[in-house]
Amino acid sequence: MGNNFGTKNGRLLAQMVLSNLMVHPMFSAISTNFSGAHNGQRLKFGQDVDVRLITAGTVDDWTEAAGYEASDSADTNATVNINQHKHISRNLTVEEAFGRDGTVLADYAAVDANALANEVMTDLIGVVKAPGIAIGDQKSIIALGAFGHDAAVDVNGELDDRDVTDVGRFGVVTGKYHGALRKDATVIDGDKNTGTDAIRSGKITTVDGVPFIKYPKFPDNGENLEGIVGTKDSLAIATILPDLANLPDGIDIPVDGKLSVATDPSGLSILVVEQIDLKKGNIYVSMRIMYGVALGKKENIQKIASA
To answer: Residue 110 sits in which domain range?
Structure first.
């Protein structure tokens, strides 16, 4: 029996794309707001939303007079404008949709989630380049051949000198700089870096306490930017669903297709639109999301440049 593609599997496809998207390390590394609302109102494209940037609490001395009196939270917000509307849409023939084994959904989910994540990554890196952070500011100049464990320690040292927390630090580097890390014996030696599986998997666990994410598609930046190291509160993302997802059940207006929404426990949602052309026998599938990105505490980012 062929896949019931375009009927009951839309939500399954959305959930599989969502699951693959959420395992991308960047989504757990930065500050997020996936609620789709602001002050109780549903957000629309082009509107602003606040993303909370968590700040460490104040450590106070106990005194007989004050006891354990609490201090007010010093959390701040990053203002994110919902200005990106992305989709991945496919036209499938009947043979493509029904003539495969049962892996077609999983195959599409994995590659489409990666493609969506790459778009978000490009936008996130884009807010780091000037004028977000001035070209000469917060930058470690490290040649490709010199990038390894020792260089990562030096980059961390720059953040330490600014009293940036080491909780939740992450790194994103280009493919060639990630490759330089994987060539460093200190990084890939299991005796020195317990738990590493870089030789077999091509992935790096942590280097000097920082997990480094490989992202080959750094946007053009005019400052030889090859990577960044930041903290959870240094970058922010917010998402909403396109308006079609908010059509009420039982609406009298005919909808020429099927709408499915999958939501992760974090709140991140994906809309899937499906349509069958009964005349031609083609199946249209579209995955859609709206989002915005912004700098958070930009002083908590250290840029890595080749020159």
So the answer is: 10-55+75-305
In angstroms, the CA 143 to CA 165 distance is 26
Number of domains comprising the chain = 1
Task: Please give the structure tokens belonging to residue 188.
Answer: 């890939």
Torsion sign (Cα): 101, 103, 108, 109:
positive
Q: Among candidates 231, 237, 239, which has minimal Cα distance to 298?
A: 231
Query: End-to-end CA distance of the chain, in Å?
Result: 59
Q: What is the CATH number of the domain that holds 265?
A: 3.90.1690
| Helix or strand holding residue 180 (H, E) | helix 175-182
pLDDT, tens digit, 9 for 90 and up, residues 214-247? 888 888 878 899 999 999 999 998 888 887 766 6
Task: Please count the CA atoms within 13 angstroms of the CA of 157 that sit on its side-chain side.
Answer: 7
pTM above 0.90, yes or no: no
**Residue 62 falls inside a structural domain:** no
Per DSSP bridges, beta strands 170-173 and 225-230 are: antiparallel
At 225, the amino acid letter reads L
Residue 19 tokens, joined: 């699951």
Domain assignment present for 95: yes
pLDDT of residue 248: 54
Number of H helices, E strands in the chain: 8, 15
Residues 6+ apart with CB under 8 A from 279: none
pLDDT in tens, 35-79: 776 666 777 888 888 888 877 777 888 888 888 888 776 778 889
CB atoms within 10 A of CB 101: 7
